[in-house]
Design brief:
By secondary structure, the protein is an alpha+beta fold. The protein has one domain: Winged helix-like DNA-binding domain superfamily/Winged helix DNA-binding domain (Arc Repressor Mutant, subunit A, Orthogonal Bundle), CATH 1.10.10. Helices cover 60% and strands 17% of the residues. The protein has five helices and three strands. It has a three-stranded antiparallel β-sheet with strand order 1-3-2. α1 runs antiparallel to α4. The radius of gyration is 13 Å and the shape is globular. The mean pLDDT is 93. Pfam families: HTH_5. InterPro entries: ArsR-like_HTH (IPR011991), HTH_ArsR_DNA-bd_dom (IPR001845), HTH_MetalResp_TranReg (IPR051081), SdpR-like_repress (IPR047796), WH-like_DNA-bd_sf (IPR036388), WH_DNA-bd_sf (IPR036390). It comes from Marivirga sericea.
């Protein structure tokens, strides 16, 4: 769970998640939306993947990233258990 909170603690990673909620994208498509280098975007994607917030699948010469809604549902359910 710590890796999830670490991943969500960064504004860029939250913006990437927002992009992926609409559709799957490859790293180049994601990078086009930000004013930073592709290696920086790859670093953010790696952190999101390690936190299991996104998944990746090779499609041709590109890797396509998708939002892992299961882990987000688990997180919301856990947060809801904290409510009294």
């Amino acid at each position: 769970m710590n890796s999830i909170f670490k991943a969500l603690n960064d504004e860029t990673r939250r913006e990437i998640i927002e992009l992926l909620k609409d559709r799957d994208m490859n790293a180049g498509q994601i990078a086009e939306r930000f004013n930073m280098s592709k290696p920086s975007i790859s670093h953010h994607l790696d952190i999101l993947k390690r936190a299991d917030l996104i998944t990746s699948e090779k499609k041709g010469q590109f890797i396509e990233y998708s939002l892992n809604t299961t882990i987000l549902e688990d997180l919301v359910n856990w947060i809801m258990t904290l409510k009294k």
